[in-house]
Design a protein that fits this description.
Blueprint lengths: L1 E3 L6 H10 L5 E2 L5 H13 L7 E6 L8 E2 L25 E5 L2 E5 L6 E5 L6
Parallel strand pairs: 3-7
Antiparallel strand pairs: 1-7, 2-7, 3-4, 3-5, 5-6
The structure holds calcium ion (2 copies).
The site of one calcium ion has 7 residues, from strand 6.
GO molecular function, one term: carbohydrate binding
Protein name: Putative alpha-N-acetylgalactosamine-specific lectin-like
Keywords: Lectin
Length: 122
């Protein structure tokens, strides 16, 4: 399941916030097109489809090599037109989703974020 914050944090604060929760979450990993559609639908429903929302991808370890926030390899990515730009004289190392497309932006900016949790149904 997904959870969208109603407050804004930097990307690394968002990583910690998702991870520190009791049910072992993480900043959302969008693994395929189907999940991308699902996450965008949820953001759209929440009236956040048009906003930058942090997702769990970054290239802060090595410029141009995008991974999930835990260092694992991406299985899917949906960059918007002309993205990732990398930055002009500054670093754009953290990923956001907007209108279902991704952009790389400066990690120190503050945006809302989407956590993903795995729920065990008994
Ligand atoms: Ca970058
Ligand atoms: Ca960018």
């Amino acid at each position: 399941m997904y959870w969208i914050s109603d407050y804004m944090l930097t990307w690394s604060e968002a990583v910690d916030r998702c991870h520190n929760s009791s049910n072992n979450g993480h900043l959302v990993h969008i693994d395929n097109e189907e999940e991308n559609t699902e996450v965008y639908a949820i953001l759209y429903e929440a009236n956040r489809g048009y906003e930058y929302i942090w997702i769990g991808i970054h290239d802060s370890e090595k410029e141009g090599v995008w991974t999930y926030e835990d260092g694992s390899n991406l299985t899917y990515v949906n960059w918007g037109n002309g993205e990732p730009t990398g930055g002009w004289g500054y670093e754009e190392d953290c990923g956001v989703i907007r209108f279902g497309d991704y952009n790389d932006i400066t990690c120190e900016e503050k945006y809302r974020f989407c956590c993903e949790y795995y729920v065990v149904i008994e």
